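Sat 14:20. Reprocessing the chain from the morning session after the first attempt stalled halfway. Input below, unchanged.
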Amino acid sequence: MFSLKHHGAARADLSAELREAQDWQVGAFLAIEHFLDIAAVAVDPLSASLAIGTAEGGLHILGGPGVEKHWALSEPVRIKFLQFAASLSKLVSIDETNHLHVWDLSPRGQPKLQANSRFNAPVTWLTISPSHTHAFVALASGEVKTYDLLCLRVSQYTIPNILSLYEKETLREAEHLISIAEPAVPIEVVIHPRNLDLVFVAYSGGVVLSDLEQRSTIGAYRLILPLGAPGGSGHNGPDLLKLRRPSVTSVAIHPSGHFLAAGHVDGCISFWAVEDQDNPLTVRTLDAVDVHLPDMNGFDNEGAVSPASEREPIFKLAWSGFPNSSDPRGGATALFVLGGQTTQDTPGMYVLWFPAFNPAEPPASPGSRTLHPVFRKGMQDSLVPLEAFFYPTSGLTQDFYLVPRDSPHFSGSWDPAAILLLSESEGKSCAVEAYSVSLPPTVSATLPSSPKPKSPGPPSLPNDLADELASTLESMKVDDGTPRRLTLPHALWTGPAAVTSTTLHVLDRDPYEKLVRGADLDEDALPLRGGSAWIDGDSAGNDLKFAKYQPHRILISQHRDCTVQFQDISAQLRLRTESVPLQRDIPNPLPRLTIDPLFMLADPSLSTVFPPGSLNQLKISAVAFATESLECYIILRTGEILVYRFDSDSGSTKGLSGKLVDEELISLEHIAAPLRQRFHPYLVLAAKKGPVVACAPSDIGFFAASFNGGLLMIVDMRGPKIIYRSDKDSSAKRKSAFLRNSQDLDTYTSLTWTVCRTDSDPVPRVRLLSVLASGRTKIFSLNRSSNGSWIVDILPSTPEAPAQPVFSAVLDAYTGARFKADRYGLSRALDPSSEDVIAGKGHSYWIVAGAKGVRCTVDVDGERVGKDDWPHKAGKVECCEIVERNGSQALVAFTDRHEALVYSLPALEHLHTLQLPAQSNLPISPDPSGDFLQHTPFPAAASLIARTTYSTLFDIRRAYYHVTPEVDLLAGKKPVPPQPQPVSMGPPSIKDVVGGWLGSWGAGVGVTGVMTGDQIDALLAGPNRPIPKPVSPPPASSLKPASTSDRASIRTSARQTRGTSPSPSRASEVSEEVSGTGGLYERLTAGMSERGQVLGDLEEQFRSLEEGSRSMVAQAKRLAGEQTGKNWFGF
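Finished this time. Tokens:
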């Protein structure tokens, strides 16, 4: 036992309020997930939400701030297909075992599983239309089943293997002449974008257009390459001199509905007019056109292409239209192509921008039902690319998904705002990258523009200047159409953005507000705004009001691409109620604080230190953060230290370049920070002495770093300049001569900045406590000279510390507060007379922990008052922290056996052993308030973090952390827009209004009309469709006055009704009734809602009829006038 007396003053117990077991309670608050095994993605543009399916059967929905839902299948099986049923507010998934699950998204809490059906054959495709309530499920058996998402059953309508049936009649005699893949398996089903009655079914042998109502085949589009045609294989193909039919791999329909594109296994794309199944419009690869025609000149270059550059199949196609033209036929389009590259190309995908398809009216040809040459020429002209863009990916591209702005029609490809790219990454993980989609200038220039109105009267000089300035500013803001990389929510930090490490930091109020003010603004964020989330105050109880007293916390994460990102994880983010939903995510990303060292290191001025070829190999070893001065220190594995300074001015202006005195220091002030970023590069310490062992920043303009070879440097940031280096210290050289054969014992492994007195020097000074691996300690004192510079003195005393130190801190002996090297400490050092030495104030405890135990001494080099060795059964101590609660402090040591050892201060009595949740063997990151982070690695890649768990040692009166935010997924959801109608290939005319033209040339296939979604449902479901009925009310005896929870349930149901999007059919209205709670109030509300909706539909139909009649009369009058004019002039 050690003395608790020093200088005649009784020493206080700093752990008085933490001695009882009930003062400690371990709890987990928040699990921050990163989806590294994404298998399927679905996008709902109506609610601006994203659904994720994983390889382990996990399902996740991401929306606006705080809007997250996470659940999983009963078995950990891979999700193959995932789609939203927009008209019913449901989510449909199909897993590897061919089970179809239907999830209702309208209730609060977790989505409700409504159905689980299994198909007898492997599922090859899933298609759901927003205009009706049936899903098309393609099977490997060759059939396409229909599933009723309202009645939750397989409907009686089945599309047989129509290509096989068709070819038995048409190709029976020619099959032996063509190398044909088995056409029995449907690989994709696409609904006609403007006619719900027509369905394109892509088989490996070709694409078939089927009429659902007539149960007939309208066209079969099969690419047959003649002898000598290079196709996608080129002139080196083994079957060049044979008839070939390359297998179809994907299909996409032009937004007008008049022609389609089919991808093939040899990497070529065939384009077809819907009205002409015999002759393709053209066949091309990414770099060649008309590859379906024999090319004799190509034989001369037969050996030019290496067999190693084999072309990939076309894996996926999507054809997008945009609201960029007043012509009903549309404007410029974009074809997104995944695949078709050679094996030597950079991973990624292309988008081809095509001009508008707006041909003129052709001369009349009575009786002809074939495609007019004028239209065929117009289609071919609209397939000549205006521009091509390339979206690179970090690995081999696996899939892509478009994110439309607001329309679910056109197979989810209309007017995309962004594109999500999935690619292979480390350890079989999946990388997700996002880019913007916008029309390039070369495409926009082809679109008609309306002239700007001019102001009347002569312009004055100020107006000219204003116009010129406005024009200049507008030119600076012009979007050049180049895809911009978009930032993703933290759940999608994968691939290059995958997290490798995180640390937790507590900030005082002033630096916190300075750091986060406006830092969460992100103009390049993926547009996810769906739903609404809030904290239920009743569930949190009275504890919610204590959240505002919690300290502010910042989470700093390191990533595979060498970036450092900041997130706000403060409890104050949860201070939101239902009336004021969450405005920020939890944790809240701060993108304007992101640091990208590679951006700075690519500057030509640093090429001698960081050659361009070495940048891809750079990795971050650790990140240190000064919580008051807001300086960030990035330690690279190669031994360099990059220093960034916070600047609230997010401009990218450059400083002056200047040569520094010390060659190890390189100024970075001349390098501009990325636009809108607030951390600016300031300094590089490149000692070239091996890896960094320890780096200690201070908040008063100093930092110290030690290296593997035993070198210690102290840097004054005011120069900047090096004010101490151990390799030029003569005393250090003499001692190191005895230890040259034991390098580890001569390495500084612990560095601690403080402002305190020592037993041998009672004046408070800025000090650096440096502990060698052997336990020997050096005390460096920094003193300010008369000319303002700082000099370093070494105290002769060398107190002993535990070997292999892992933690060091200096506490006020009377309050337990830390003696930091901050602004307050610097004021004490600059004005020592303020220290009341006579009264005994200013004494301190130095607590230092090592691999085998912990020590506590008075005034650093004074009397030892506490000592203890770690228990043998506790395992290895990985890190320590002094935690504070209720004005008391205690030392907590975290071991590799998931235990926390609690010791009193200053006596170091072992008080408690706390059992922590066993997450993984990765080190824990604690903070001084007792909160800590645990990490769970991705199973197939231990270097990647799949989950970060935010936990605490004091789960007391913090119930608000355990309250999962209430989420309404349907809040703010837009109604399903009307189904797009057929358009003619020629200019609009009276035929379009009357409707006769729509039945023939409008659909382009000779049908007699366009069916509605309700008619399609009735056709597919059959005459005996069991429409679900509303849940019957409870018996009268069970009715009772509504309690508080009942009233909350009524409010919940009413809110769900308000959030549900208006459905396009009666079937979806019935689905809303089924989703109700069944109570009397809910049934009355549902009945009133149904009645109002029916009346609204009637009003809308009458208004549509009225507008159609007016339009028809106006068109008739115009045509009559034109005809009269022609007769009048004798035409």
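The mean pLDDT is 83.
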